[in-house]
UniProtKB/TrEMBL annotation, chain A:
Pfam families: PTPLA
Alphabetized InterPro entries for the sequence: Tyr_Pase-like_PTPLA
Catalytic activity annotation: (3R)-hydroxyhexadecanoyl-CoA = (2E)-hexadecenoyl-CoA + H2O; a very-long-chain (3R)-3-hydroxyacyl-CoA = a very-long-chain (2E)-enoyl-CoA + H2O
Pathway the protein contributes to: Lipid metabolism; fatty acid biosynthesis
Entry's localization field: Endoplasmic reticulum membrane; Membrane
Species of provenance: Octodon degus (Degu)
Gene that encodes it: Hacd2
Protein name as it appears in the record: Very-long-chain (3R)-3-hydroxyacyl-CoA dehydratase
TrEMBL record, chain B:
Enzyme class: oxidoreductase
Record InterPro entries: 3-oxo-5_a-steroid_4-DH_C, SRD5A/TECR, TECR-like_N, Ubiquitin-like_domsf
All copies of domain TECR-like N-terminal, residue ranges: 5-80
Function: Involved in both the production of very long-chain fatty acids for sphingolipid synthesis and the degradation of the sphingosine moiety in sphingolipids through the sphingosine 1-phosphate metabolic pathway. Catalyzes the last of the four reactions of the long-chain fatty acids elongation cycle. This endoplasmic reticulum-bound enzymatic process, allows the addition of 2 carbons to the chain of long- and very long-chain fatty acids/VLCFAs per cycle.
Pathway the protein takes part in: Lipid metabolism; fatty acid biosynthesis; Lipid metabolism; sphingolipid metabolism; Sphingolipid metabolism
Lineage of the organism: Eukaryota, Metazoa, Chordata, Craniata, Vertebrata
Topology of the protein relative to the lipid bilayer: Multi-pass membrane protein
Protein name stated in the entry: Very-long-chain enoyl-CoA reductase
GO CC entries: endoplasmic reticulum membrane
Subcellular location: Endoplasmic reticulum membrane
Length: 254, 308
């Protein structure tokens, strides 16, 4: 869901350009947009994020060339991955203070699902870090985020190259399933270790009469992909048709 | 007497849905909705939203045609609110669930806990007390729904019943599971803690009921009038001096009492979620009061005295 959600729902982190994400039934096209100070900040934010994910991309490539294999590349990009993906929590703040017109709930959901995978699964269950499924979702996220953040950057500057818009609304077709597969396989791989170590779990009896089974929780998370992923995926497909056909129309009049 | 003509257009597509001629000037929106239902029976009045502007606010059922800013040919925009269900039905369903579900856990009906515990009874007195309190709370709510509350709206969207029941029933099951569990741990400070908690619970239940009665007395049967609520001779209603929605204040208080009584984290979480939702409602109600009444008492806060 992290891969799917991130590319789908946000209209955010920038104005202008094609708007992905749930339109709020606005008939009047009154785009207030962020003020000049907010815009400057957002441009900087999006540039920094684009750069960050490029660092991760380059790190992956270099590690692959150095090692000669694509196994266990996680370790070479672990720190920037954690830093930049966690940094995306700021996007929730952007929505909350209104400089980005996306829904706080939707943005929280997608950032939290990414952060969950990074910290509560991959970081927490060390045995999983050598799995190839990790590379699968990291690659999907990296390509998605580089495109997404540069899309926002250009949109804010009102200079969106068609290529970026096209990439954002087309590559997801492959990147989503790729990311979702990587995520699910990673969670699945973590299960036995969670069970064995009783990770993040608490059982009865205890003072606060509470119990939590992280293993069962992870299974529920996996199941939740079944209704959620198709919804997000088809939403993006729908957005693609809307956005790219509109662009075709504009091109005709140039 | 000049008759009006009313045309009803779809708010989204602007399609002409209905044309009513010879409408009385004193006709109310409710009457117009009834006329509209005749030509479109699938849209019963409760699911109609009629407004003067496609994006504007819904007109009220009591609004009179003559008093609206329209010419003798009025254009109204229609929006389908979706299938509706009565508030009473929703309340009864969402409250009956927890009452029944909690008892399933209390009596340790098979397949919940291990088979050796089927139909056994907890050895902790607080568990029995908790069952009484929880059951009392929901019986009170059911009775209030049937005999006390006077609802402003008859209906709400159908999907709400699924949402609401999931919330109430889900949390009830979650709490009941732990409180009635064979491995339940009674409160750390024992009988003292339970006594204090029970006092809080009882006071807040009485308070909540007092407020419901006071609100009921503000509004005559069958009417939809709104008035500023004021403290009455009942000391529990004196909380009106400090908050707009003391019923919510007392409700949160009851659940805090229950949480202390059972020393159960899921109960505390339920209280927190409930508090969050009630705060949102209280703030909304407070804002409506301020908008509607110029002379609204300035000392009052929405839900927590002086703070929130």
């Amino acid at each position: 869901m992290a891969a799917a959600a991130a590319a789908a729902a946000t209209k955010g982190n920038g104005g202008g350009g094609g708007r992905a994400g749930p339109s709020e039934g606005s008939g009047t096209r009154k785009k207030k947009g962020p003020g000049p100070l907010a815009t400057a900040y957002l441009v900087i934010y999006n540039v920094v994020m684009t750069a960050g994910w490029l660092v991760i991309a380059v790190g992956l490539v270099r590690a692959y060339l150095a090692k000669g294999s694509y196994h266990s590349l996680y370790y070479s990009i672990e720190k920037p991955l954690k830093f930049f993906q966690t940094g995306a929590l700021l996007e929730v703040l952007h929505c909350a203070i209104g400089i980005v017109p996306s829904s706080v709930v939707l943005t929280s959901f997608q950032v939290m699902s990414r952060v969950f995978l990074i910290w509560a699964v991959t970081h927490s269950v060390k045995e999983v870090q050598t799995e190839d499924s990790v590379l699968l979702f990291v690659t999907a996220w990296t390509v998605t985020e580089i495109i997404r953040y540069s899309f926002y950057t250009f949109s804010l500057l009102n200079h969106l190259p068609y290529l970026i818009k096209w990439a954002r609304y087309t590559l997801f077709i492959v990147l989503y399933p790729m990311g979702v597969s990587g995520e699910l396989l990673t969670i699945y791989a973590a299960l036995p270790f969670v069970r064995q170590a009783g990770l993040y779990s608490i059982s009865l009896p205890n003072k606060y009469n509470f119990s939590f089974d992280y293993y069962a929780f992870l299974i529920l998370i996996m199941i939740s992909y079944i209704p959620l992923f198709p919804q997000l995926y088809f939403h993006m497909i729908h957005q693609r048709r809307k956005v790219l056909s509109r662009s075709e129309e504009h091109k005709k009049f140039e | 007497m000049k008759h009006y003509e009313v045309e009803i257009l779809d708010a989204k597509t602007r399609e002409k849905l209905c044309f009513l001629d010879k409408v009385e000037p004193q006709a109310t929106i409710a009457e117009i909705k009834n006329l509209f239902t005749k030509t479109h029976p699938q849209w019963y009045p409760a699911r109609q939203s009629l407004r003067l502007d496609p994006k504007g606010k819904s007109l009220k059922d009591e609004d009179v045609l003559q008093k609206l800013p329209v010419g003798t040919t009025a254009t109204l925009y229609f929006r389908d609110l979706g299938a509706q269900i009565s508030w009473v039905t929703v309340f009864l369903t969402e409250y009956a669930g927890p009452l029944f579900i909690y008892l399933l856990f209390y009596f340790r009906v098979p397949f919940i806990y291990g088979h050796k515990y089927d139909f056994t009874s907890s050895r902790h007195s607080v568990v029995h007390l908790a069952c009484i309190c929880h059951s009392f709370h929901y019986v009170k709510r059911l009775l209030e729904t049937l005999f006390v509350h006077r609802f402003s709206h008859g209906t709400m969207p159908l999907r709400n019943i699924f949402k609401n029941c999931t919330y109430y029933w889900g949390f009830a099951a979650w709490m009941a599971y732990y409180i009635n569990h064979p491995l339940y741990t009674p409160p750390t400070y024992g009988a003292q803690q339970v006594k204090l908690a029970l006092a809080i619970f009882v006071i807040c239940q009485l308070g909540n009921f007092s407020i419901h009665m006071a609100l009921r007395d503000l509004r005559p049967a069958g009417s939809k009038t709104r008035k500023i609520p004021y403290p009455t001779k009942n000391p529990f209603t004196w909380l009106f001096l400090l908050v707009s929605c003391p019923n919510y204040t007392y409700e949160v208080g009851s659940w805090i009492g229950f949480a202390i009584m059972t020393q159960c984290l899921p109960v505390a979480l339920f209280s927190l979620v409930g508090f969050t939702q009630m705060t949102i409602w209280a703030k909304g109600k407070h804002r409506s009061y301020l908008k509607e009444f110029r002379d609204y008492p300035p000392l009052r806060m929405p839900i927590v005295p002086f703070l929130l």
